[in-house]
Amino acid sequence: MSEPTPYDDDRAAYSRQGLARLVLSDHARDVADSAAGLVSTRHGAETGLAGRASQARQLVELAEQALLSAVVYEVECGASWGQIATYLGISADEAEERYSSGLQAWKGAFEKPYRLDETGRKRIPQLPTAAYDPSWACAQLDQWALLQRIGINDQQAVSAGLVMAGATDGPLP
User: Fold this and answer.
1) How many Cα atoms are found within 13 Å in the side-chain-facing hemisphere of 104?
2) Against a cut of 0.85, is the pTM above it?
3) Among 64, 81, 95, 99, which residue has the fewest nearby CB atoms (within 10 Å)?
């Protein structure tokens, strides 16, 4: 499975910190979109009984995924478990216990970026989509941020702040 894909060179342009931030941005967008679905009341009757509870549960699951992505990003930035735990209101040991498996999966995906499907013929990426194909993710997230008026009229509200490979002092201009 060491054969290159069209996304490998593109991904190599980003630092792991930049890719982790891009994944966090992607997950945050999912949370925002899911939360927006709970705002409208116009079609509430069509949802059926307990439908909004289901939507709210999905929102919580997406938020938990975003939190894991935030922890991975902070570790990629150099934060310790103690620093992360302070902001989560838990102990460092509890933070490490809770999030280390997700962090190991993130790191492992860089060592073994693909697995074969059950037929043994198709490669399945192990990285989250935003990290696997960062150019596509940047285009999608920049467009979403522009439409949501995040960074008013900023056409690169997401991609402009990412740390690229080889950068030592943060995002490239």
Assistant:
1) 6
2) yes
3) 64
d(CA 158, CA 168): 19
Strand, coil or helix: what is 114?
strand
Greatest alpha-carbon span in the chain: 54
Q: Residue 2: which pLDDT band, with cuts at 50, 70 and 90?
A: low
Contact at 8 Å (CB) between 32 and 149? Answer: no
Any idea what DSSP says for residue 121? S
Determine contact, residues 38/52, Cβ cutoff 8 Å.
yes
* Residues whose CB is less than 8 angstroms from the CB of residue 7 and which lie 6 or more positions away in sequence, other chains included: 132, 133
Q: How confident is the model at residue 173 (pLDDT cuts 50, 70, 90)?
A: very low
Instruction: Tell me the C-alpha distance between 135 and 9, whole Å.
Output: 11
